[in-house]
């Protein structure tokens, strides 16, 4: 069977939610309200099989002029280890390059997958103090995760913060 990757549409939101819900229940991904998915739909890419069924998703969320977070990367169990995650990651990276970004961040339990795609565990990422002051004002949880702020610790315990230069 073959699959393709495309930009998400608003009609994909129920499928994205159904896809990520088991991962939310297993505490691998953070749960999100429907409105959050709709607000961010332009960030998502969808993998679908040859009959149009959604089999995976992933999102690229811009954090700063050179930095974005890879979010909500998920593939249904039947399609794991068949290149779907790799294809989604490739598209998100291409999207990042098109936007002029040079770094990708993720917070993940799937360290081997992201390592295979060039990510490395983060050490203390040097941040210009002026940029830090801007970022710390963001209400976005991904920004807080990137900055390793204490307010996200209960939700992120056990995850690995990873970064990639592109």
Explain this structure.
- The protein is of the alpha+beta class and 166 residues long.
- 27% of the residues are buried.
- The protein has helices at residues 13-25, 34-39, 84-98, 111-116, 129-135, 141-147, 153-156; strands spanning 3-7, 44-49, 54-64, 67-75, 103-108, 120-121, 160-165.
- The two termini are 31 Å apart.
- Strands 1-2-3-4-5-7-6 form a 7-stranded mixed beta sheet, with helices on both faces.
In angstroms, what separates the terminal alpha carbons?
31 Å
Order of helices and strands: EHHEEEHEHEHHHE
The number of distinct helices, counting runs of at least 4 residues, comes to 7
Strand proportion: 25-35%
| Order of strands across the main sheet | 1-2-3-4-5-7-6
Largest sheet: 7 strands, mixed
Overall structural class, as computed from helix and strand content, comes to alpha+beta
- Unreliable stretches: none
Oligomer: single chain
User: Which outline best applies?
Assistant: globular
Question: How large, in whole angstroms, is the Cα Rg?
Answer: 15 Å
Kindly state the number of beta strands: 7
Residue share in helix? 25-40%
Write the layout of secondary structure elements.
Elements: E1 3-7, H1 13-25, H2 34-39, E2 44-49, E3 54-64, E4 67-75, H3 84-98, E5 103-108, H4 111-116, E6 120-121, H5 129-135, H6 141-147, H7 153-156, E7 160-165
Parallel strand pairs: 4-5
Antiparallel strand pairs: 1-2, 2-3, 3-4, 5-7, 6-7
């Amino acid at each position: 069977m073959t699959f393709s990757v495309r930009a998400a549409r608003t009609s994909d939101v129920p499928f994205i939610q159904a896809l990520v819900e088991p991962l939310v229940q297993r505490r691998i991904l953070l749960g999100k309200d429907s409105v959050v998915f709709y607000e961010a739909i332009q960030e998502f890419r969808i993998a679908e099989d040859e009959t149009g069924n959604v089999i995976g998703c992933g999102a690229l969320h811009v954090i700063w002029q050179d930095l974005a977070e890879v979010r909500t990367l998920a593939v249904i169990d039947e399609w794991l280890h068949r290149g779907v995650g790799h294809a989604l990651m490739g598209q998100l990276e291409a999207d990042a390059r098109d936007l002029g970004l040079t770094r990708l961040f993720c917070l993940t339990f799937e360290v081997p997958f992201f390592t295979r795609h060039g990510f490395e565990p983060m050490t203390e990422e040097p941040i210009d103090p002026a940029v830090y002051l801007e970022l710390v004002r963001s209400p976005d949880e991904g920004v807080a995760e990137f900055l390793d702020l204490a307010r996200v610790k209960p939700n992120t315990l056990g995850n690995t913060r990873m970064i990639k230069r592109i």
